[in-house]
Amino acid sequence: MKPTTRWTMAVVVAIVIGIVLLLWTRRDEPQAPAKGEVAMQPVAPKPEPKAEPATPVKPIVDEPLTATVHFDYNRSEVRPGEAPKLDDFATKLKGRAYGRLDAIGHADRIGSDPYNLALSQRRAEAVRDYLAGKDVDAKGVRTDAKGEREPVTGEACKNMGSENRKNRKLIECLQRDRRVQVNLVAKP
After folding, report:
1. Distance between alpha carbon 82 and the CA centroid of its chain, in Å?
2. Per-residue pLDDT at 64
3. Nearest to 141 by CA among 154, 151, 127, 152
4. What string of DSSP letters covers the chain?
5. What's the confidence (pLDDT) of residue 138?
6. Euclidean distance between CA atoms 123 and 83, whole angstroms
7. Integer CA distances (angstroms), 127 to 37, 97, 151, 169, in order
8. Distance between CA atoms of 40 and 29, rounded to whole angstroms?
9. What is the predicted pLDDT for the residue at 34?
10. What is the structure's pLDDT at 39?
11. Which residues contact 127 (CB under 8 A, 6 or more apart)?
12. Which of 151, 154, 156, 143 is nearest to 178 (CA)?
C-alpha cells in the first residue's frame, strides 16, 4: 500500500472518530424547547398526491480513452515527442474504473514478417513500461502485436521504390504505420 493511501486512510479514521465522540458527548444535553406558539392538531389532513415514478437516470458514460504513439524506423523506444501523449493518457486515466488497457503494436512493411511482428511486440511493451512509470498498473495492460498486418497508410506509399532501409522517402511515408494504439477497455 502506498504511503499516501495510508495517510489518507488515517486522516479519514481520525475524522470519523472525532465525529463519533462529538455526537456521543452531546447526546445527554437537554433539547432546547421550541420557540413560538404551540401547534394545533390539523382538522383533516389533505391526502398527498401520489408521486409519479421517477425516470431512471442514465449513468454518464466516460468518453472513450485512446492514444496513438508513433515510433522511429526500426526502433521500439518511445520518442520524446510522443511521450506527452502517454502522459496525457495516464492523467485522464486516473480516477476511472476500467477492465484493462490494450497496447497494440504495429510495424511498417519494410523487413520480414517475423521481424516486424517481434518489433511491434517490443513497441507495445515499451508503451506498457512507460505507462507503468506513470503509476498505471502494468498488470492491467494487455500487449498485442500486429506486425505489418494493419497498415494505415493504405495506397499512399505504393510504388515508391525498393522496400529497404536505404529508401528514406518510403520510410518517411510509412511513419504512420509504426505505432502503438492504447485503448481503455471498460469493465464488463
Report:
1. 18
2. 80
3. 127
4. --HHHHHHHHHHHHHHHHHHHHHHHHTTSPPPPPPSPPPPPPSSPPPPPPPPPPPPPPPPPPPP-EEEEE--TT--SPPTTTHHHHHHHHHHHTT---SEEEEEEE--SSS-HHHHHHHHHHHHHHHHHHHHTTT--GGGEEEEEEETSS-SSGGGGTT-S--STT-HHHHHHGGGGSEEEEEEE---
5. 87
6. 13
7. 73, 20, 19, 27
8. 27
9. 46
10. 44
11. 69, 78, 86, 103, 105, 143, 180, 182
12. 151
Q: Which of 120, 98, 94 is nearest to 178 (CA)?
A: 120
Give the pTM: 0.65
Q: Flag residues of the chain having pLDDT under 50.
A: 33-41, 57-61
- The residue written with cell numbers 472518530 in the block is 17
Q: For domain 66-185, which architecture applies?
A: 2-Layer Sandwich (3.30)
The predicted structure's pLDDT at residue 55: 53
Measured CA to CA, the distance from residue 109 to residue 175 in angstroms comes to: 11
Spatial distance between the Cα atoms of 94 and 137, rounded to a whole number of angstroms:
11
Indicate the residue type of 106.
H
Residue spans of the domains in the chain: they are 66-185
- C-alpha cell of 78? 518511445
Which pLDDT score is estimated for 18?
82
